Amino acid sequence: MTFEEIKNEEQNYMMHTYGRFNAAVVSGKGATAKDESGKEYIDFTSGIGVNCLGYCDDGWVKAVASQAATIQHISNLYYSPLQTEVSKKLCELTGMDKVFLCNSGAEANECAIKIARKYSFDKYGKGRQKILTLVNSFHGRTVTTLAATGQDVFHNYFFPFTEGFDYVTANDAEDLEGKLGEDVCALFIELVQGEGGVMPLSDEFVSAAAKLCQEKDILLMIDEVQTGMSRTGTVYCYEQYGIKPDVITSAKGLGGGVPIGACICSEKLSGVMTAGTHGTTFGGNPIACAAAKEVLSRVTTKEFLEEVNKKGAYIREKLSALPNVREIRGKGMMIGIVTEKNNAKEIAVKCVENGLLILTAKDLLRLLPPLNISYEEIDKGIEILSRVMDM
Ligand SMILES: *Cc1c(COP(=O)(O)O)cnc(C)c1O
């Protein structure tokens, strides 16, 4: 099929839920993708932070392929050693206590929301169900995670949304304190707001929030769906803030390209979700778990994390010399660029034409390159970006 044919068929047969770039990506290796005509693209997106080991990494392919040839699925009515291995590793990495495996970021967040409400219900009874999130946050596309998302543009059409959310201005401890009423059971936050514009929270705000939560037995829940899996230079971003969350949610990079999510809770919450209170058909699927096991064994080593930090710094340094750059934000290899001309979307479209896949978030350019991208690919990508920024 030609690109025009692919595009037409998409128009004919798929719901028009995505604003897509003009490219059909059909194969890839490392941080280089190919379209249907064989044209190559440097990938600064990882499929929105998913392909943390790039396209078709040898070890990852082997893990997935050999698992597909061993057992592809088994119901959660039976035990699965791969699930327990992945869960154990997540607990060891975080010092937390129990894991629920699911299939996406939104699902991991749904689990977190259910844990918060049930913990509070079990301990305090009805009426303490409100969850505070941040203005400009993003937590997913289900009706409940849309309600959790602190952006009015997402609160349309699908009424009624799930009740019991309120929104605090990021980095405003006073606003938080004012909203921490008797009916609040949890604070649920991203530490670097991804979709909201690659906006890291301040140390002061996060420390103050952690302290307030602890004093009032309010759960501190961190949405690490985008910041997790070593993206920001530590396995999870909360490590950089010196806090101990009650719940962490993880997805995107966790499977390196297959759908898997995890909701991880502390010891205090280990007994909250009892038999029959939660479940999913696909959660902890063996192929997804084999992929996650490979990812976890690779991206969490000291050497790998050092590389992520080195490459993050290298990319930032290169970017700061480009035209049309006003500000560079983010942590590690989660990078946002505010442009002088406020033309991120236009730049991203032109980058695709010129062989570079790059994201936007609000009115920023956003880079989430594969964590193991080569320096050669970084240089090639920046060279394309530099030419486009100069237009
Ligand atoms: C992408 C994202 C989600 C939603 O994940 P899905 O897998 O698309 O459901 C939730 N939270 C954050 C912070 C995200 O970046």
**Approximate helicity band:** 25-40%
How many strands appear in the DSSP assignment? 17
The major β-sheet equals: 7 strands, mixed
The CATH architecture category of the largest domain equals 3-Layer(aba) Sandwich
Q: Number of helix segments? A: 12
Number of domains: 2
What is the mean pLDDT?
98
End-to-end Cα distance: 32 Å
Biggest β-sheet: strands ordered side by side in the sheet: 4-12-11-10-7-5-6
Radius of gyration: 21 Å
Strand content: 15-25%
The best one-word shape is globular
Helix/strand-derived category reads alpha/beta
The fourth-level CATH homologous superfamily of the largest domain is Type I PLP-dependent aspartate aminotransferase-like (Major domain)
Spans of at least 5 consecutive residues whose pLDDT stays below 50 are: none
Summarize the helix and strand pattern as letters.
HEEEHHHEHEHEHEEEHEEEHHEEHEEEH
Q: What is the CATH topology of the largest domain?
A: Aspartate Aminotransferase, domain 2
Briefly summarize what is shown.
The protein is of the alpha/beta class and 391 residues long.
Task: Describe the overall structure.
- Helix content is 37%, strand content 19%.
- It contains twelve helices and 17 strands.
- The protein has a seven-stranded mixed sheet, sandwiched between helices.
- The radius of gyration is 21 Å and the shape is globular.
- The relative contact order is 0.17.
- It binds pyridoxal-5'-phosphate.
- Pyridoxal-5'-phosphate (PLP) is lined by residues 104-106, 109, 138-140, 190, 194-195, 223, 225-226, 251-252.
